[in-house]
Inverse folding.
């Protein structure tokens, strides 16, 4: 059921100084279009009602603030008064920020791909007034190009079909909505029956499939464009910690994996992490990763920098450090990458209120013109002018800055493409501050300041884990500030039922729809990680409340769904259903993230209900593990944790330096999915894993290591913890 407070999104008309209804929207992307002559409206009942009243179709444009081609189409078409006049006369035009409304984006992306055979942003979709799509594409140029009509030609053709062939248009929309409904895999998950077996051999096969799909020349997976695969890397790191072993509940149907797959997983993860961090994908000056590489060799990034990518990659690099690295990609090198990524997150995306902004644009505004990557490009002449005749050419050679540019005619990003060692490392240490200072003096990319709950949840997990592994308590403090913001601004507790999470806030004010499944799951994941690092029970309690709310909101009628029917139009567009996408994309799927949080909560609480629910969601895995493991990275990572137990560590006894040392040792363990509970003197009720477990007879702190709430005899020394964890390794 839609939330009445958000069912009618949008302003009744333009604000003073704006030509449409976008000026007051929380999304920076929507506000970028507030001065367009197109009479844009935000997605909501009011806009669709206007289309029905006027008897015209809806033109739906979907993009995001950091999107280069979105800026291009805006400049070419949406700022053009002739095009705007035609749109205003014959359509109701709606703008959507895909980051604010991924539920809208997902269903119309499915429609776009079904109609045009391609997908991407900006997405251009034509709808009936009830929300069903009947025509779609992506970027349309202002003038015809070979194989692609101009945007105005498309508008004229759609209007002609609407006026002259309405019956065919409506029939096409009905057929497409039915096809989208038929493609929804929600029936593949049943939450109301016994879970099927989880076979450890499946994870070995997934590793083998990933090894076969590796780009053995340049690292990573696939060709161009090439994306970082953080969820897959998390699975590989967990698998590398040891061969899988069946959880007790599925032991009869499982078989252990072999050490070869663990070694293969470790090597593959190391090669991929090294290839990315030694490339132009990683900002060699400021830290942080671009969204993807335009080229197969990682040499030309698409320059937008997203919170969700960098949060996930920060956590993965920290976990690689925890695993110990490899000779080909040492832990110390990864620790530097993780530390600089954390610094970039806080410096460039940090907001005064404590949360993190969404992204930095791909484009930089230079002399009033959007220039892709302008902040980040260098020329040989520019390097020599800044660094001198000796260091300038040396740095150009080291960073592959050639006379012929890779992005513009003479401009290239910094792309070492290899480990920097020896004299090169000394040169780079000396010149990097000079380059960074010079670059900071250039025009900088714009920032989208909206706060997305789920993405900030990912950042909480990453900063908490990185702070523990890198021994940087200020990162844990930052994670707590974000968590506090989420609790204060985004979370609305309910006295006698599940609370509610709002997806987006801006300026400290929650706006728009309720959180999606991914928001609840990512926030719970982050809060559980924060509890494990800090031992503050408030974060465990809040994570459990969010998890219960997610189960109440999205797990109903024996199935699971990504959204709770926030918009009737989205439901209509997929044939009257609210579906579930089980595949990872740039982030883990909502289903996979929920399963991971459920496994963690079950380990801390002993909840058989949550453990069973997680096992049912993991039932999605068998057809994906071998056929499409790159789309199931977080399900695989969660399965690895479930097969390992996961190991449960209860740290009991007084808060002393000795207890802190035991706690820290546990946080450095790479045991897949290991959960840590720490006694909290300020808690009104202990975490269930701690109940009945206290200090040693002499009053000293001690650690209980358990699986399924069944614990071994406690240990009271760091060496004892290490030895016991080694014996418990899967």
């Amino acid at each position: 059921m839609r939330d009445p407070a958000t069912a009618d999104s949008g302003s009744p008309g333009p604000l003073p100084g704006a030509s449409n209804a976008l000026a007051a929207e929380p999304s920076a992307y929507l506000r970028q279009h507030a001065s367009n002559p197109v009479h844009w409206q935000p997605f909501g009942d009011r806009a669709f009602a206007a289309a029905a009243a006027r008897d015209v179709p809806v033109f739906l444009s979907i993009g995001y603030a950091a999107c280069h081609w979105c800026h291009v189409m805006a400049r070419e078409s949406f700022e053009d008064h002739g095009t705007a006049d035609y749109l205003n006369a014959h359509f109701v035009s709606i703008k959507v920020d895909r980051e604010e409304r991924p539920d809208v984006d997902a269903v119309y992306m499915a429609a776009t791909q079904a109609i045009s055979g391609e997908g991407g942003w900006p997405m251009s979709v034509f709808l009936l007034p009830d929300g069903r799509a009947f025509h779609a594409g992506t970027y349309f140029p202002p003038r015809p190009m070979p194989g692609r009509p101009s945007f105005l030609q498309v508008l004229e053709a759609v209007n002609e079909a609407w006026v002259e062939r309405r019956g065919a248009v409506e029939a096409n929309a009905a057929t497409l909505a039915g096809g989208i409904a038929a493609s929804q895999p929600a029936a593949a998950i049943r939450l109301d029956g016994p879970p099927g077996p989880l076979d450890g051999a499946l994870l070995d096969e997934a590793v083998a499939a990933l090894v076969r799909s590796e780009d053995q020349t340049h690292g990573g997976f696939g060709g161009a464009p090439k994306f970082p695969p953080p969820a897959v890397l998390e699975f590989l790191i967990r698998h590398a910690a040891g061969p899988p072993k069946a959880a007790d509940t599925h032991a009869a149907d499982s078989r252990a994996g072999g050490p070869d797959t663990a070694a293969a997983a470790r090597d593959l993860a190391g090669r991929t992490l090294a290839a990315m961090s030694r490339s132009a994908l990683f900002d060699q000056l400021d830290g942080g990763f671009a969204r993807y590489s335009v080229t197969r060799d990682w040499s030309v990034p698409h320059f937008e920098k997203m919170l969700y990518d960098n949060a996930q990659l920060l956590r993965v690099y920290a976990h690689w450090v925890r695993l110990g690295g490899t000779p080909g990609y040492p832990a110390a090198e990864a620790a530097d990458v993780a530390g600089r990524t954390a610094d970039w997150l806080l410096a460039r995306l940090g907001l005064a209120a404590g949360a993190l902004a969404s992204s930095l644009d791909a484009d930089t505004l230079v002399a009033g013109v959007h220039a892709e990557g302008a902040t980040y490009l260098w020329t040989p002449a520019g390097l020599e002018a800044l660094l001198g005749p000796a260091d300038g050419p040396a740095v150009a050679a080291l960073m592959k800055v050639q006379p012929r540019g890779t992005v513009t005619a003479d401009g290239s990003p910094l792309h070492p493409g290899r480990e920097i060692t020896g004299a090169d490392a000394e040169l780079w240490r000396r010149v990097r501050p000079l380059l960074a200072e010079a670059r900071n003096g250039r025009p900088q990319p714009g920032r989208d300041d909206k706060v997305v709950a789920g993405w900030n949840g990912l950042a909480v997990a990453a900063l908490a884990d990185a702070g523990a592994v890198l021994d940087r308590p200020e990162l844990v403090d930052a994670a707590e500030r974000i968590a506090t913001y989420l609790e204060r601004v985004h979370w609305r507790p309910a006295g006698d039922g599940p609370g509610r999470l709002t997806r987006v806030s801006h300026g400290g004010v929650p706006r728009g729809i309720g959180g999606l499944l991914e928001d609840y799951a990512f926030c719970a994941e982050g809060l559980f990680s924060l509890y494990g690092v800090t031992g503050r029970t408030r974060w465990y309690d809040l994570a459990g409340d969010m998890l219960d709310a997610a189960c109440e909101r999205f797990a109903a009628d024996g199935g699971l769904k990504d959204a709770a029917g926030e918009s009737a139009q989205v439901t209509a567009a997929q044939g009257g259903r609210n579906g579930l996408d089980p595949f990872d994309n740039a982030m883990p799927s909502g289903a996979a993230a929920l399963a991971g949080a459920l496994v963690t909560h079950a380990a801390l609480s002993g909840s058989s209900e949550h453990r069973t629910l997680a096992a049912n969601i993991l039932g999605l895995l068998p057809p994906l593990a071998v056929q499409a493991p790159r789309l199931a990275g977080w399900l695989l990572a969660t399965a690895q944790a479930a097969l390992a137990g996961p190991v449960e560590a209860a740290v009991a006894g007084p808060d002393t330096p000795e207890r802190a040392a035991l706690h820290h040792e546990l946080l450095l363990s790479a045991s897949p999915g290991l959960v840590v509970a720490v006694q909290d003197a300020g808690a009104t009720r202990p975490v269930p894993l701690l109940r009945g477990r206290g200090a040693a007879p002499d009053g000293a702190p001690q650690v209980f290591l358990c699986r399924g709430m069944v614990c071994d005899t406690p240990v009271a020394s760091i060496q004892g913890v290490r030895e016991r964890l080694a014996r418990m390794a899967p």
Observations:
- The longest strand covers residues 500-506.
- The mean pLDDT is 91.
- Residues 318 and 466 are 5 Å apart (CA to CA).
- The radius of gyration is 26 Å.
